Amino acid sequence: MHSRTKQLAIVFIVAFLLNLIWENVHSYLYIHYQGGTITELILVKAAFFDAFVTLVAGALYLWVKPFRGRLDVTIGGLLSFAIGLELFALATLRWNYSSWMPTLPCLDVGLTPIVQLALLAYISFRLSGLLKKDNMR
Q1: Could you give the angle at which helices 111-128 and 40-63 cross, rounded to 10 degrees?
Q2: pLDDT tens digits, residue range 56-98?
Q3: Between the CA atoms of 71, 50, 94 and 110, what dihedral angle is there, to the nearest 10 degrees?
Q4: d(CA 135, CA 137)
Q5: pLDDT band for position 7 (50/70/90)?
Q6: Segment 46-64 mean pLDDT
Q7: Cβ 95 vs Cβ 32: under 8 Å
Q8: Phi and psi at residue 49, to the nearest 5°
Q9: Residue 94 · residue 33 · CB < 8 Å
């Protein structure tokens, strides 16, 4: 397996595990998912989705201009994606926040899901070795 492909596989696995932990810990900041109870299966699916988004971001970071080798642009893209996803989910009532969810006042979106995607992607990139200088070419 090519070293970059192996790194992306590690990114996905690490991102999935980190997101699964995060989803379980912060699920208490939500009232419901699509009007129903938040189950472990829902949290696993959310962690899988977040890991997939992180994998795509890692591939963009490795191979696609303007992301290639640009951690700032990649993380900025993840932050933008997370904000858009939260705005969409809230507008379509996919989920609602509990009163404990810290929100960004200007957008009324949850702070923890926005921080989650960018922070855990960064940690996944770092742990996988994706941020080595030789990957920035």
Answers
A1: 60
A2: 999 999 999 999 999 999 999 999 999 999 999 999 999 999 9
A3: -50
A4: 6
A5: very high
A6: 97
A7: yes
A8: -60, -50
A9: yes
Residue type present at position 92? T
Check if the beta carbon of residue 31 is closer than 8 Å to that of residue 93. no
Beta strand extents in the chain (DSSP E only): 30-33, 95-97, 103-104, 109-110
The residue behind tokens 């700032």 is 72
Residue 110 — φ and ψ, nearest 5°? Answer: -65, 135
Q: What's the sign of the alpha-carbon dihedral 86, 87, 93, 97?
A: positive
* DSSP state at residue 8: H
Question: Which of 1-10, 32-41, 96-105 bottoms out in mean pLDDT, i.e. has the lowest?
Answer: 1-10
Locate 13 and state its tokens.
């696995």
Does the pLDDT at position 131 exceed 90? no
**In this structure, what DSSP letter does residue 36 have?**
B
Q: Identify whether the C-beta of residue 51 lies closer than 8 Å to the C-beta of residue 19.
A: yes
Residue 14 burial by Cβ neighbours in a 10 Å radius (0-12, 13-18, 19+): buried
